[in-house]
Write a structure and sequence with these properties.
The protein is of the alpha/beta class. The chain is built from 11 helices and 12 strands.
């Protein structure tokens, strides 16, 4: 059997060092992958004169599965978000952000297990129709929600809930005010929910969701929502389990999937062997589950859980005093 090849985008800042950790762990557990390395972000801009070179797009297309470190999009004129570009280019319509409490983190809660499923290509976040008037006094943007897009993400969320033996899906919206866009999303999600009578459905307005996530996060299971709300809520959920360093993300489409650390490139600690690689290691676990390699995913998860719980060689954000490589070694030893 030929080896599976995955595209690896090390990214900017701390990206290369945390990606290196993840690859060492994947190799150690016996995944037997081949890696095609590709550039994107500032590193690509310096090397190739563009943020997202064609050869990188070709490799994502060819291998279908990509593991990605954090990328920096320069702030200001003319640069569109690389992540948004990738999502649209490969129709990665579902963004899946699980958060799970791990013992030994500095988190405020102990029993969180929530998956946020976010529509990834439509709505306010997609950046359509952004204009500023010549006098600089009026700004506009367009939000478009389609029945097709809403149905795809709702079906994805309910199917995921069923597959993972989850009991409840919460549809998060703002249909009381945004009656057209959020209204359509809610209407379609309701229709989809009727096809899944085995799963409890609740509906919640986004602002109430934020409050309840902070007060009683244990009441949530799977959340499905639109692009902008999902972006905000998934970061709030990450905060419940100790921050973005503990939160992976998957971008899934019909023909391709990109798994990533969801935090930034942290240029202030780049090259200092200080970064916590957990987010991208958890993203690689998502990748393995997507590829049907659940046993290997579980082996890595239990090793990571054990290291963080024991405090053995943990990084500063986890209350330890060690660096990226020490933390990685502690996981490798358990594997």
């Amino acid at each position: 059997m030929s080896k599976r090849t995955i595209t690896v985008i090390p990214g900017d800042g701390i990206g290369p060092s945390i990606i290196d950790s993840a690859l060492k762990i994947l190799d150690k557990v016996g995944c037997d992958f081949e890696y095609d390395f590709a550039d994107a972000g500032l590193v690509a801009l310096e090397k190739h004169g563009e943020l997202l070179p064609q050869q990188t797009l070709d490799l994502i297309e060819k291998n279908k599965i990509t593991l990605k470190g954090p990328l920096t999009t320069p702030v200001g004129g003319g640069f569109t978000s690389i992540n948004v570009t990738l999502r649209k280019k490969f129709a990665l319509y579902a963004n899946v952000r699980p958060v799970l409490s791990l013992k030994g983190t500095q988190a405020r809660y102990e029993d969180i297990d929530i998956i946020t499923v976010r529509e990834n290509t439509e709505g306010m976040y997609s950046g359509l129709g952004q204009t500023v008037s010549d006098d600089g006094c009026t700004a506009e943007a367009t939000s478009i929600i389609t029945r097709k897009g809403a149905e795809k993400i709702a079906v994805f969320a309910y199917e995921l809930a069923r597959k993972e033996n989850r009991k409840k899906v919460t549809i998060v919206h703002k249909a009381n005010i945004m009656k057209s866009t959020s209204g359509l999303f809610l209407k379609v999600a309701r229709e989809v929910s009727e096809r899944f009578p085995d799963i409890t459905t609740e509906e919640m307005i986004v602002d109430a969701t934020c409050m309840k996530l902070v007060m009683n996060p244990e009441n949530f299971d799977v959340i499905v929502t639109t692009n902008l709300f999902g972006d905000i809520l998934s970061d709030l959920c990450a905060g419940l389990v100790g921050g973005l360093g503990m939160a992976p993300g998957a971008n899934i489409g019909g023909n391709a999937a990109i798994f990533e650390a969801v935090h930034g490139s942290a240029p202030d600690i780049a090259g200092k062997n200080l970064a916590n690689p957990t987010s991208v290691i958890l993203a690689s676990i998502q990748m393995l589950e997507h590829l049907g390699m659940a046993d290997k995913a579980e082996a890595i998860r239990s090793a990571v859980t054990e290291v963080i719980a024991s405090g053995d060689r943990t990084t500063r954000d986890l209350g330890g005093t060690y660096g990226t490589t020490d933390f990685t070694d502690a996981i490798l030893e358990r594997l």
